[in-house]
Amino acid sequence: MKQAPRAKDKRAKAIAKTAKTIVKRMARQKAAFLRALKKTCGEVDTSAHRAGVGRTTVYVWRNDDPKFAIAWDEAITIGWGDFRAAGIERAMEGSDTLWQTWAKAKFPGEFNDKIELILNKNETFLKITNGITRIMNFVPKERHQEALEAFAAETGVVLRAPGILLPKPENGE
After folding, report:
1. Phi, psi of 153 (to 5 degrees)
2. Cα separation of 121 and 19, whole Å?
3. pLDDT tens digits, one per residue of 94-112
4. 107-137 tens-digit pLDDT
5. To the nearest 10°, the Cα dihedral for 150, 153, 156, 158?
6. What's 142-160 look like in SS3?
7. pLDDT tens-digit readout, 132-160
8. Confidence (pTM)
9. Which residue of 22, 59, 97, 103 is surrounded by the most CB atoms within 10 Å?
10. Is residue 40 a contact partner of residue 83, using CB atoms and an 8 Å limit?
11. Measuring CA to CA, which residue among 154, 149, 159 is closest to residue 117?
């Protein structure tokens, strides 16, 4: 039994309308997921839950949609940048143990408070810490070792930190 042409048109319109609705819903869910991913600094499970979709679904989207995959990576990068900026702001206002713990876990080479100083009698603590702070903040990470060695030679200070081992001065201090 053949359907009347009018019934076929109605059915085709209904299918097209449903498809548009699904595409719009998926776009909203993708946007919600990316916003949540940015806020959670890459926590996929939490972000998927906040967007109202399954974890598997977002990975399917990532594999099937290159633009979505790029937006995913950008959201994580921006999220960590925002996290860092907020943490630095909070740290400037006072100590924030939670932020420090997270930063050390995520960026162990960049946020580390385990630098041991053996001071030369002629140097002030402030001068030494300011010098180290400038190196850690403004010198590229791959040049930290070289910059700290130069600083130690210039000031006569012995510095030890994880991953950065400087020899003691010749005079045995």
Report:
1. -65, -40
2. 77
3. 556 666 666 666 666 666 5
4. 666 665 544 444 444 445 556 666 667 766 7
5. 70
6. HHHHHHHHHHHHHHCCEEE
7. 677 667 777 777 777 777 777 776 666 65
8. 0.52
9. 103
10. no
11. 159
- In the numeric block, the tokens 């930190």 are attached to 161
Supply 5's token pair. Answer: 């042409």
Which amino acid type is present at position 56?
T
Tokens of 73: 């990576």
Placement of tokens 């702070």 in the chain: 133
